[in-house]
Design brief:
about 350 residues; alpha/beta; Rossmann fold; 3 domains; 3-stranded antiparallel beta sheet
């Protein structure tokens, strides 16, 4: 007797999981156990994740070789499909946070805190999780937010150099100049590079910055020119690279190709705080697979509320390097403390 073959099958519902059993084991399979799956991220379930686990068994003597070959091929196809889907699914982090488990409820004492978070623009599901984790005081809520946020600032690694990535109009070039001033204030030389050579206004602005900062500037037409320049200057000064917003995805792909052992500078994703949150998430989905290291928030002076700072910080999972509050160079930029960040989110200063 060949014995029994036992395996677990998954689906978003019982019917889907059962079809998977029948597809591999055939109609003679025996269902041994059925279990509902619950996610572990804050107790929140992903819509696309399996929710039913079936443990099935089949007498191996009844399973034909053709079924085994077919099931193996099917399994390989499923693995490939999952790997392809993973790239998109990780990006849809907002979906990962829905829906909240049914047991998550707001007590009467916490309704005020919950409504406060909603008024500030905190995502409904994230707001539910926050009030579940805190006590019924504003200070307790603030402490929970402080626990969640990651602040990196400009560490020696960042001072080694950064490349600024993001959609058009978020303030990458202005931010770059502010960071350059911050680094120079520490008596460290700076080199500026722009990959946006198609617009005359950008080149002119870059030249003006170079004069103001008394530092070298370069305009790079092709990404494959970067290694020679970066490796030549990185040991002597901080290298800051500006990129065009219209071609950020192709630039990231090119960087991955020409720096196979890893890009030596930090990749910073720049977000306009006043931008529509769904748009910001869409841009992030295009970028995160290329190894973004940190995020930076710009134009806080134009934002009506700051709950999206918390949303995006949590959804991206990346540490915050800086915030900018206006166009003034070299001012209007700060490395926020966690306390300052939390105060912004809940509506304070």
């Amino acid at each position: 007797m060949d014995g029994m073959k036992i395996k677990k099958f998954y689906g978003q519902n019982f019917k889907e999981a059962l079809e998977a059993v029948k597809k591999e084991f055939g109609p003679d399979a025996i269902i041994i156990n059925q279990k509902e799956i619950k996610s572990s991220l804050f107790g929140i379930t992903n819509k696309k994740s399996p929710t039913i686990e079936l443990t099935a068994a089949i007498d191996q003597g009844q399973a034909s070789a053709s079924v085994d070959i077919k099931s193996t091929n099917s399994l390989n196809e499923e693995i490939i499909k999952e790997l392809k889907g993973l790239k998109e699914e990780i990006g849809f982090l907002k979906e990962t946070l829905r829906p909240v488990v049914p047991s998550l409820k707001i007590t009467k004492d916490k309704k005020g805190l919950f409504n406060l978070l909603l008024r500030q623009g905190v995502d409904t599901q994230l707001a539910l999780v926050l009030v579940e984790r805190c006590q019924d005081t504003i200070d307790s809520l603030k402490n929970v937010i402080i626990q969640d946020v990651k602040i990196q600032g400009l560490s020696p690694v960042e001072e080694k150099g950064m490349i600024f990535i993001g959609p058009p109009g978020v303030g990458k070039t202005t931010t770059l100049s502010k960071i350059a001033y911050m680094i120079q204030s520490k008596k460290k030389p700076v080199s500026l590079i722009t990959l946006d050579d198609s617009r005359i206004s950008t080149i002119a602005h870059f030249k003006e910055m170079g004069k103001m900062l008394h530092c070298p500037i370069r305009s790079v037409k092709k990404i494959n020119e970067l290694p020679r320049i970066v490796y030549k200057e990185i040991g002597k000064m901080s290298v800051l690279i500006d990129t065009p917003g219209y071609d950020y995805k192709a630039i990231l792909e090119g960087i991955n190709d020409i720096f196979p052992s890893g890009f030596p500078l930090k990749k910073c994703f720049v977000v306009d705080t006043s931008m529509n949150e769904q748009s910001a998430i869409k841009f992030w989905q295009d970028c995160f697979v290329y190894g973004i290291d940190s995020i930076g928030f710009t134009k806080l002076d134009l934002a009506m509320s700051f709950g999206n700072l918390y949303n995006l910080s949590l959804l991206t999972g990346r540490p915050l390097s800086f915030m900018t509050t206006g166009p003034d160079i070299p001012h209007d930029i700060r490395i926020p403390s966690k306390d300052f960040f939390a105060n912004l989110v809940i509506g304070g200063v």
